[in-house]
Amino acid sequence: MSHACAEVLDEVRHVIRSLLEPLAAANGTEAHLLDVGCWDGVETVRYARLLRARAHGIEIFPEPAAEAERRDVDVARIDLETGRFPWADRSMDVVIANQVFEHLKNIWLPMSEMFRVTRDGGWLVISVPNLGSLHNRALMLLGVQPTSIRTFGPHVRGYTAGEFARFVTFEGAYELVGRTGVGFYPLSARLATPLARAWPAASHTTVLLARKRPGVARPPWQAFVEGGHEALQTFYGEAETLAR
User: What is the pLDDT of residue 67?
Assistant: First the structure.
């Protein structure tokens, strides 16, 4: 990982902590935090301390999952694309998914599960690399593959800032409370921060803060899990027609 990318990831974690600080006052004594993709639990513990919350996490890799457990994180070892979360409905006050959804083909199931386990009025903090960042736009103009989704890279999906916000707020299940841009590759953090704040749609990474709307009985992304959403049926119907 380049020094510039490492700086961006550090700044993303800083932004997430700054978003969590105001939420601490609203949490009760039995608050619960879920960190989706918690790795070794270092940041998970920091987030939980800010919120004065019990720390839960999801991590599929055995060694970092074990390290997170040694840090007293309640870890579920599941594949996000196929597994259901082991926690009850509306059991989490805050859910975090930092730099996770760019690695997933099936984004519908984990999004549905995150929504399910979040209490009404609870919070989601979620981040992804921005496909529409200025440096990706420049690369595309030159006919070069954008860095956020390379053929031989770990990312399998790319999101512009606006598209990712539409995904998170699909059918009004979440209310978008804040959108922050982080990083302006390849500038240093000192130079990048004011540019990213002024032009978040062109920043390196998108960070969203969203609140779960009360009264939504069923996660709207669940229809895609079941293959029953009209948009999905239309896509596959058109594809089948073209294949004939």
Answer: 98
> Domains in the chain, please, with CATH?
3-243 (3.40.50.150)
- Structure tokens given for 140: 């595309």
Token look-up 């390379």 returns: 150
DSSP H/E element including 126: strand 118-129
Q: Which of 56, 129, 150 is nearest to 94 (CA)?
A: 56
What is the per-residue pLDDT across 189-225, written as a single tens digit (0 to 9) for each? 888 899 999 999 999 999 999 999 999 989 999 999 9
CB 51 within 8 A of CB 33: yes
SS3 call for 139? helix
Cα 88 to Cα 27, 78, 91, 154, distances in angstroms:
18, 16, 6, 31
Mean pLDDT, residues 124-133 taken together: 98
Strand, coil or helix: 183: coil
Q: Measured between alpha carbons, how far is residue 132 from residues 106, 155, 229 in Å?
A: 21, 15, 27
Predicted confidence (pLDDT) per residue in 130-146, tens digit: 999 999 999 999 999 99
Amino acid at 8: V
Cα separation, 98 vs 243, whole angstroms: 38
Distances (CA, A) of 25 to 53, 108, 224: 11, 31, 36
Going by the DSSP 8-state scheme, the letter that residue 203 receives in this structure is: S
SS3 sequence of 146-180: CCCCCCCCCCCCCECHHHHHHHHCHHHCEEEEEEE
- C-alpha to C-alpha distance for 192 and 182, rounded to whole angstroms: 8
